[in-house]
Amino acid sequence: MSTQKSSQKLDQIVAQARRASEEREQGYRAKALKLYPWICGRCAREFNRQNLRELTVHHRDHDHDNNPADGSNWELLCVYCHDNEHSRLTDSGYGDLATQAKNKTARHNPFADLATMMKKSK
Question: Can you list the domains of the chain with their CATH numbers?
């Protein structure tokens, strides 16, 4: 490959990288990182450029299409707290089933007629 072609290919790659970066900057993560301090909203861990990839945007209403410009549906969470938040949501569904089962009134009572059965066996 000639030097000129290599240079053109490199220019194209750099231009594509710049466009991709600008597109990401328009995304909700970039906006959230500009709006909020780089601190996890749950554990208060602080972030810098070296570990910023571990800071995520959590949608409070769990709707990834709900991205108001004021960031009112966003919360910055570290990957661990974000995972915990979604696990709690999943686990709460199981908790509801357990609560429903606990509150159900039993309809069958195997000992309802125990006195009669005891008299018959004598």
Answer: 28-90 (3.40.1800)
